Amino acid sequence: MTEVGRNSSFGKALKAVLWSFFGVRKRRDLEADAQQLNPLHVLIVALIAAAVFIGVLIAVVHAVVH
Predict the structure, then answer these.
(1) How many Å apart are CA 12 and CA 29, to the nearest integer?
(2) Tens-place pLDDT, residues 40-53
(3) What is the distance between the alpha carbons of residues 27 and 52, in angstroms, rounded to a whole number?
């Protein structure tokens, strides 16, 4: 796989994960993602996105409390 193919796959995984965090996804897109995306990429992106989300929540709470 070329370097562009890998970046594209991570980009598609990021898009799929962010839309799933938002909770809006078309069935057609979900089915396409299931066929095209590498599950490992989706897992890595999801873990990073969850960590960033938790970090933002902690920062907001810390800013409000102090």
Answers:
(1) 11
(2) 998 999 999 999 99
(3) 27
